[in-house]
């Protein structure tokens, strides 16, 4: 049954993308940018609905009150394709820094260009990165919310963290609050995994780290904040979903955490 539900979800997921793009693209490209954002947000909400109805995986969000008014940086842990879009319906006007190759995908690249997403050559240095930062500042001056994954790529739940320093440079230069976010999406929709697992879990939006810290101090604080909250939420998620088959990294980390003496 799990396999059947997962296959049905995958069919529905890709059909949802294709049909919406074919039917709604003329409206999307004719609408003003901010109004047009309602279309990808509705697509994201529909995917969450498909996960709930077909797979039986749902989530709740804690900490919406921690999102500041105006421009800010969201810094989520990144585990799954799901976490790239699931929170879109709850964000005002998000902007992503993304690898430039995504801009070359027909239609999809046009969609993200319409929303003024910021492409970057990951191997770039010098003037290219200066231009990226200038674009980032311009978008955030308009009150947008920057989404940046501090680890740069998807990591399995419980895996040893591998943070990149780039977020500290952006924090230094942009001077807006950074909002850490943790959730264990990867336990339900794993990277490059066909099987999707049912269950219910929490997404925790943590209190923002205010601007003005030394970049090194901010970087250390962000890592400590995300990893501490992620460990606590991992135990909570596993306890609430005892049926889940844990990836090796998650099983190892859960065992390590349970072996630690109580505080």
TrEMBL record:
Coiled coil: none
GO molecular function terms noted in the UniProt entry: 1-acylglycerol-3-phosphate O-acyltransferase activity
Pathway membership: Lipid metabolism
CDD domains associated with the record: LPLAT_AGPAT-like
Keywords: Acyltransferase, Membrane, Transferase, Transmembrane, Transmembrane helix
The UniProt record lists the keyword Metal-binding: no
Phospholipid/glycerol acyltransferase domain: residues covered: 72-186
Positions of transmembrane segments: 12-31
GO biological process: phosphatidic acid biosynthetic process
Source superkingdom: Bacteria
PANTHER family linked: 1-ACYL-SN-GLYCEROL-3-PHOSPHATE ACYLTRANSFERASE
Protein name from the UniProt record: 1-acyl-sn-glycerol-3-phosphate acyltransferase
Organism for this UniProt entry: Neorhizobium lilium
